[in-house]
Structure to design on (290 residues):
């Protein structure tokens, strides 16, 4: 029972929510449209470094790539000057090098249960797709390696062509004009994919917003966290408090700090989905862990 949580009755302050309250709301059918925003943190348990974690993040470990400063690797002027650092980084993310983990499968379970309104991801590793979440439920806000575009004549090509070159350390060239081909990953300053516009309909419809593994530092993605209605619980599951949930919290925010795998497993347990989760993991990974 989530007494004192479902509404204020128009008088006074709403009671603060806990992770358990949100889990009970979902269990009770009170949140049929779960909206999710994720970032690089959800893939660190798969072995892919995030950007900003001190020590382990990409930004702390880019010396090997011969770039003037970390962000240069995702900047077009630098890519035109020298595409090799980005291509070397891309090669590491080749599909199949990494596998989805328990967090991706938790999101897949949300979808299987008909609760996932949409998953907005900043990640470019493709692990949401690999976990079995259909493309229609995904907004890959910073693009993906599924397709590529010539930087000169704008001819598009399938991601497979890009990989064929990158895997043998060859700079991908357009077969028509010989321009450099770039995968459809959004670099700094580039427009986001058209599908990002879905946020205009999705966010006002959400019953709960889950935010997992992101520093909420990259715009316009970060500001989506403010686009749900004020009455909608926002649940941040992350190592640290970030973005608007840290500097401009709302009364129905829940901030669950700590390790993501641990927190997601706790949420799964509170939802009463532990057995289903084990079954799904066993089916998908062949073992009962991530
Ligand atoms: P970020 O800025 O590196 O933030 C990651 C957040 O996750 C930080 O707040 C971390 O503290 C937190 N975090 C990391 N691991 C854990 C963990 N195990 N438990 C709890 N919290 C954890 O990354 P953002 O996604 O916010 O930044 C957006 C960038 C990152 C996008 O443009 C991505 O394309 C880019 N990126 C993507 C990947 C990927 O596709 N896997 C990897 C690295 C960077």
């Amino acid at each position: 029972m989530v007494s004192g949580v479902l509404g204020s009755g128009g008088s006074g302050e709403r009671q603060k929510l806990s992770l358990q309250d949100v889990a009970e709301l979902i269990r009770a059918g009170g949140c049929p449209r779960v909206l999710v925003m994720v970032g690089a943190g959800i893939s660190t348990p798969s072995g892919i470094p995030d950007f900003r974690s001190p020590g382990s993040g990409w930004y702390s470990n880019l010396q090997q790539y011969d770039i003037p400063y970390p962000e240069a690797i995702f900047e077009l002027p630098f890519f035109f000057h020298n595409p090799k650092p980005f291509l070397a980084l891309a090669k590491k993310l080749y599909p199949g090098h990494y596998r989805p983990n328990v967090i991706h499968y938790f999101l897949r379970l949300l979808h299987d249960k008909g609760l996932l309104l949409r998953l907005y991801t900043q990640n470019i590793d493709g692990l949401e797709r690999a976990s079995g979440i259909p493309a229609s439920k995904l907004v890959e806000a910073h693009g993906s390696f599924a397709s590529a575009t010539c930087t000169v004549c704008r001819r598009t090509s399938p991601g497979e062509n890009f990989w064929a070159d990158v895997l043998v350390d060859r700079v991908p060239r357009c077969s028509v004009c010989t321009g450099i081909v770039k995968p459809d990953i959004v670099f700094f300053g580039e427009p986001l994919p058209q599908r990002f516009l879905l946020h205009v309909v999705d966010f006002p419809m959400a019953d709960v917003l889950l935010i997992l593994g992101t520093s909420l530092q990259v715009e316009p993605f970060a500001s989506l966290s403010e686009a749900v209605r004020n009455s909608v619980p926002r649940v941040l599951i992350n190592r640290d408090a970030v973005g608007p949930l840290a500097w401009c919290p709302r009364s129905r925010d829940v901030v669950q700090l700590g390790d993501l795998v641990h927190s997601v497993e706790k949420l799964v347990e509170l939802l009463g989905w532990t057995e289903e989760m084990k079954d799904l993991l066993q089916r998908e990974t062949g073992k009962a862990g991530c």
The chain is about 30% helix and 15% strand. Strands lie at 34-38, 116-121, 138-140, 143-150, 156-158, 181-185, 208-212, 234-238, 253-257. Residues 1-12 have pLDDT under 50 and may be disordered. The domain at 16-46+100-142+194-289 is CATH 3.40.50.1220 (Rossmann fold).
